[in-house]
Fold each of these.
Amino acid sequence: ESTLGAAAAQSGRYFGVAIAANRLSDSTYATIAAREFNSVTAENEMKIDATQPQRGQFNFTAADRVYNWAVQNGKQVRGHTLAWHSQQPGWMQSLSGSALRQAMIDHINGVMSHYKGKIAQWDVVNEAFADGSSGARRDSNLQRTGNDWIEVAFRTARAADPSAKLCYNDYNVEDWTWAKTQAMYAMVRDFKQRGVPIDCVGFQSHFNSGSPYNSNFRTTLQNFAALGVDVAITELDIQGASATTYANVVNDCLAVSRCLGITVWGVRDSDSWRSEHTPLLFNNDGSKKPAYTAVLNAL
Ligand code: XIL
């Protein structure tokens, strides 16, 4: 195959990209994105601050620009993200307790009803665990509404759009030996045992010198899949863009039948949120990097 998306589709998977609405007018960017990928995540446009800037006033202008571009170009869409401690609008940051809990529920209902039946996977909850060795939940205004906030989010999401796969998404959960990975595993196991509706786990996979790729990533993906959920690599970027490491990640996904696909977190290095890491598959001029060829050959 000659594109990443077509190559991934040979095994029933997708190869996706994070898209920024304000870059779609850049023809180099839009040409690569349209050609190479068959799944799209909005890099920021479906987040809470973008979709509900004032309480009760939803705004899908930017989100729909990404969504409509994706559909017009034949791509599926991952929704990102409904409940998160970060990129909350000011009105939500100032809420707590039962008022915040209700606002979270209202937000999930408002966004999911707008896209009902149109989203392949939703990142219902993002980044709820703490970094480091504690294995604890991250302290946040949402966590302070009660430990059950995550399962309430998933139950709300299932009712709002039964057709979407519902994912929990996090970073620094790729290495099986990390406490954060084990904490996320215990939560997903508990949710499956108690019938909390969760369908998938997203591994952001922002690999860098502080949190490098480890070959036990495949074990992690296998162990989560064995709990009865799908897995996905949702925000891949690799500091320095080692071709070998990119190929290893692709092979890890391909080795796990429940690995749905891979999303890279931007098109060119200059589009990356960590552009100084040159972590992506395309150079700033739109040419393919060695990592691109390694990924295409591995798929
Ligand atoms: C990042 C975006 O790439 C940036 O443009 C924005 O300023 C901050 O958020 N984990 C996530 C993503 O789930 O939503 C983040 O995206 C990167 C880390």
Amino acid sequence: GTLSACGGDGASADDGTITMGFAQVGAESGWRTANSASIQDSAEEAGIDLKFTDAQQKQENQIKAIRSYIQQDVDVISFSPVVETGWDAVLQEAKRAGIPVILTDRAVDTEDESLYVSFLGSDFVAEGEKAGQWLVDNAGDMDVDGDGDINVVELQGTTGAAPAIDRKEGFESVIESDPTISIGASQTGDFTRDGGKQVMEAFLQSEDGIDVVYAHNDDMGLGAIEAIEAAGLVPGEDIKIITIDAVKDGMTALADGKINYIVECNPLLGPQLMDLAQKVIDGEEVPRRVVTEETTFTQEQAAEALPTREY
Ligand code: GZL
Ligand code: ZN
């Protein structure tokens, strides 16, 4: 596009309005719904003209969306990469078109640092470590079947996604300090409730003596709860459950005693994203990495926090 009054490139209108193309992962979980709302509301708030697409968790759809934003010559492109790899080609095209890219939520695995200007999102390894640490700290109560071992079944996020890879790595790095804790079975539930339910049904058939479920997000944990209850067991009692996200439905299950611990993953990235985009367009320096603030919740803390939760 032509250089506009505000000094940025791209299709920004003469009045300096920034146009952002955002390629969202999908609508797979409560977290994603809250994340999309935050981005859309924040763009409105910031007076940024937002083009928004949902890729139904398919990488080729995200790539198509990014290509369409390049065609439209938007001022800035942002997206949450559904998986870590396979982005270099399309990001090279954005670079050649002179359109800056801001990553949110999930990271890409690339050698070429120039392919994006900033990455805004959680530290997923830390989230996995926090989940593992709670299990180690509470190991005395976690051998539910009393067989001397704490047998964990793991519901992994989307295969190849940064949160799935990193939450597994963080969790395993902490539990290896306690030889009585082991992951007896691990499979992807693709971050969805139905995926978590189906995998948990299979685990309940195939695994003996499950003590703990470690689910990479609340939605798969909620699906596991359905499977556990259908098997006549009491979630949170007969099988302990640890999840990550802390969305409203997860926090409600936690307060109700069906989940035992939740590590928060903050989806409200919109305000920081729009701030970064404005700075990038204005040619200001931006941090390479912006890590989001987030905490953890026990059952008591969930009951207290629920009334004021935004999502
Ligand atoms: C994490 C995000 C994950 C959430 C899931 O930042 O990428 O994707 O934990 C969502 O709920 O589907
Ligand atoms: Zn046991």
Amino acid sequence: GKNGYQLFSHDMHKTLMDRLQLEAELREAITLGDQLKLHYQPQVSSTNDNVVGYEALLRWNHPTKGMLSPFDFMAMAESSGLIIQIGEWALIEACKKAKKIHVADSNFTRMAVNLSALQFNHANIVDHVKNALLLTSLPAHLLELEITESAIISNVEDAIALLFKLKELGVQLAIDDFGTGYSSLNYLKNFPIDTLKIDKSFIDGIVHNQKDAAIARTIVQLALNLGLGTIAEGVEHVEQYELLKEMGCNDLQGYLYGKPVSLERF
Ligand code: C2E
Ligand code: CA
Ligand code: CA
Ligand code: CA
């Protein structure tokens, strides 16, 4: 049409059909309820090596494809809008588990749950969070919501209002993948944020790359000066732990301490 043409190959057709099928299967998984799981990855204090929290990470135990990671279905869950329902479920499920851990473990300070940009910007997220806390009677300060810079930056005015509403519930707020989005120092001043989560891409190079080390050190200092906490993600080696501890990074998360697993297994 319009004096143009587009190539439509069998490969593209197959990709589209695969995606539509996966979407239908995810819809069914949500209805059935037992294929979606949360795995939990420990977060460890750099000062005393205690496990102080967990990040809840989504898994899909697909009937034929096996255990899928968010990498395999998150883009589709976002574009189809299914992430809203999944996210609502994940909040309740993570709060349930957090309540159990809280009763058993006095070192426990947080259950971190990821919020996607779509959830943050379009769903009734304040009600979802309020509801999860009410249903599980989890003390609000034990729930930390991880939000990426890109989710916030798409509509700054609304985001500020929303962050303050979430903060009013008493939950903690973390900026996820800090340093990789459209970081603006201005929002650190104006937003009610508790924690900066230093992105794995900086942690990867921290031991051998002076620039990565300088960025990580500067983020920790910035957070300290603003009264914010810091957590490093993707810590895999002892040398990274030693350097981050020396820098004053509060908490550490990564394969060095444990991969995400079911809580039963943990
Ligand atoms: P993220 O929030 O940045 O989560 C960290 C990812 O890094 C996780 O991948 C985790 O398993 C992985 N990871 C942790 N430590 C290490 C390490 O030492 N080395 C390496 N190589 N990787 C490490 P995962 O579980 O596949 O999750 C991928 C992304 O999917 C997450 O990135 C997050 O953006 C998204 N996601 C996961 N669960 C949820 C959820 O419940 N809701 C939403 N909206 N997004 C989720
Ligand atoms: Ca995260
Ligand atoms: Ca992250
Ligand atoms: Ca990351």
Amino acid sequence: SGTLNVTELGELLGKPANDIIKKLMFAGVMANKNQDLDEDTIELIAGEYGMAVKKEVEVEKTDLTQYIEIDDEKDLKERPPVVTIMGHVDHGKTTLLDSIRNTRVTAGEAGGITQHIGAYQIRTDAGKKITFLDTPGHAAFTSMRSRGAQVTDIAILVVAADDGVMPQTVEAINHAKAAEVPIIVAVNKMDKEAANPDRVMQELTEYELISEDWGGDTIFVPMSALQGEGIEELLEMILLVAEVEELKANANRRANGTVIEAELDKGRGAVASLLVQNGTLRVGDPIVVGNTFGRVRAMVNDLGKRIKKAGPSTPVEITGLSNVPQAGDRFVVFEDEKTARQIGELRQQKQLEERRGEQSKVSLEDLFEKI
Ligand code: GDP
Ligand code: MG
């Protein structure tokens, strides 16, 4: 799409601007040479010269979101929250992620060896699941959001109680707010002599994160990620916020979701970690992922265990794609492989055209075809 003015349209059609202006007049549109024309008008004038605007249909076909059916409210069930841990460097993000994982992931999973797939899922004592993205910090927000993806339901803002609000703390707040994601503050390193949680609370009031004790509605959890203190309470608070947010999905449909990370593996080819956001992903599913496609050949979970299906909010690693997608790319499962291939190839082609289009100016043949 994009607009053309009268002169530009004339150039593309090989007609003087005055001719175009006359045609427009007959069509009841008064225009000058510099007038921008909308798509319908361009189509109309092109038609007068025996041309049709092409490509729009194909371009539209490549938009993956249109293939995602909207769920009936009655089919939606509670799903686990997807949590991102953010905060200033050295405030304890990695320690917290490890600490949560170590206490939880292997519980009841005999011999489970954690596998890095960019996210993991835990099960709390109450039997509720929580998914953590373990690309800590802003990566999850910046790279993904720049691609229009939103995977995080809840942000945990880690602030070291002995250091207080720092530049990346503020950055994290801004990311979470821009994404309209609720924030839980983990006041970390409470075991330290110099810990001053009141100062953290005070400093955060400036960013409208006001604790419940002070009349606000932000949850603050004092903790020591290093010593494993406060983790239990943090998990409880995550579930509380999740309940308020009413996070739902429909497991009984074809899956869609987002790429968390992807790489080329020497032995296995393209490997992608996916977060299933809706539906159930199954081995054998025909799938379009970003500008690539394929069939889910093998699927493993965050414990490195081979699985056959994965429901909403589950992170998995898959093989079977023709190319390596990018973090933040959307994926959609299709009913049959032929459609997935067609749409995948169209998207590939469009990506190539976009790269080329940046160099060369659009030509008549690119825009119009004879009718
Ligand atoms: P990140 O940069 O936010 O991922 O921070 P790390 O998790 O790497 O932690 C930075 C340093 O702080 C490491 O030396 C940790 O051992 C230490 N640390 C993290 N959490 C705590 C805590 O609760 N108490 C104490 N005393 N040290 C901590
Ligand atoms: Mg770290």
